Amino acid sequence: MELQDLPEGCIAKILSYTTPVDACRLSVSIAFRSAAESDTVWDCFLLSDFTSFIPPSSTSKNDLYFTLSDLPTIMDQGRKSVQLAKGPGRSVTCFPLEIWPLYGVILFDIGSGQACQSPTRFQEVAMLRAVCWFDISGSINTLTLSSNTHYSASLVFKMINPSGFHYHPTVLSVGIFGGNSNTKYVCLDPNLKDNHRFQELQCPKVRSDGWLEI
After folding, report:
1. Where are the domains of the chain?
2. Would you call 127 exposed, middle or buried from its count of C-beta atoms within 10 A (0-12, 13-18, 19+)?
3. Most buried residue, 77, 177, 180, 195, by CB count within 10 Å?
């Protein structure tokens, strides 16, 4: 018996143990297209608990997967951003970002006396005219994270007339409350990447939307 002779449901079950790339390749075949594009297959490529943060929709699981993969999806009144990372195997990644409570989430223009006009989804921003210490800290409840999922913590920001970051590296730290933390020194000002002080440090990259990410 050839594979294409199996019932569609059986083929879909087999494909659910492969990868999104494999399913897309088989979907070009008339014999496998229906099974390869079925919700049975693509439901396995989505996060196991995606229904907890994605409202019910008539959209196929195939379309939903690529929608979440292409761009971050803002939800929960702007407090969360979810995106699936395309990659080999089933290494799907979710990036939930809790905006509040955060301390010191600031878009700033030091010394100009002008209000910050940079586009942002935050309802409140602040401007620092003089600063000797700049600190951002926040937390997320690990119960909201999905099991068997790889997570990455990133800082996404914009700078307007940056000042002071050329004196010392910036310290970034991620950890579990009451446990170990991972700390690294980075350079937040991309204009300083050729400065001898920061040549060995990671610098932010410019995203397609114009924001910086590290």
Report:
1. 1-45
2. middle
3. 195
